[in-house]
UniProtKB/TrEMBL annotation:
Belongs to the SCO1/2 family. GO terms for molecular function: metal ion binding. SUPFAM superfamilies: Thioredoxin-like. Gene3D superfamilies: Glutaredoxin (3.40.30.10). This is SCO family protein. Residues 1-28 form the signal peptide.
Length: 207
């Protein structure tokens, strides 16, 4: 059976990076069994990338995926001064929490900054929590940020805007199941209800 992959939206990532990410999703999607199509996100179960990270929280503590074992993790790469894509993704995460109701306690939303020069620990302490008190922001030095993004097939670059700059970056979010396994790639255009449904299914599979 032929597999088709829907178009993924990015800000202005490089053509090579976008094609590489789309190819990785296509290969993972084509390898799924038919009954896995109930997920509304792209099923990338079994991907041999995006398996872990080691980053710092706003208090300087080292954080890894294992720290959230028992909960689903929704991981997004973005930055505080992002004008539209990041607020949209994080607002959707907040709405998904509402859809989940009591099950929201089994979800951890994490924002990894691709702009560590401006997203200081103080910024990352307040920025995600302004949307929901359980959301956390993680950061690292420039080299570790680049290595982590590469490990998750996330592409980003600094773009000059007069006397300042903005960041172009991949807009896909990732969902891990409660056992810490990368399972789903969440398309930017998905609704909060569809994301919540996928989270609920992952939680049900891993009680």
């Amino acid at each position: 059976m032929a597999c088709a992959l829907g178009r993924h939206r990015f800000t202005s990532v490089s053509r090579r990076g976008a094609l590489a990410l789309a190819a990785a999703f296509a290969l993972a999607a084509c390898d799924r069994q038919p009954d896995d199509r109930a997920f509304q996100s792209i099923d990338i179960t079994g991907a041999d990338w995006g398996r872990d990270f080691r980053l710092l929280d706003a208090d300087g503590r080292s954080v890894q995926l294992v720290d959230f074992r028992g909960r689903c993790v929704l991981l997004f790469f973005g930055f505080k001064q992002c004008p539209d894509v990041c607020p949209t993704a994080l607002d959707r995460a907040t709405d998904a929490m509402r859809h989940l109701g009591p099950q929201a306690a089994r979800l951890q939303v994490i924002v990894v900054t691709v702009d560590p020069e401006r997203d200081t620990p103080a910024v990352l302490r307040e920025y995600p929590r302004a949307l929901h008190p359980s959301f956390i922001g993680l950061h690292a030095d420039l080299a570790t940020t680049a290595a982590t993004a590469q490990a998750f097939k996330v592409f980003y670059r600094k773009v000059s805007t007069g006397g300042s700059y903005t960041m172009d970056h991949t807009v896909t979010s990732y969902l891990f199941d409660p056992k810490g396994r990368l399972r789903l790639a969440v398309k930017h255009e998905q609704s909060a209800a569809s994301v919540a449904a996928d989270i609920a299914r992952l939680s049900k599979e891993n009680p």
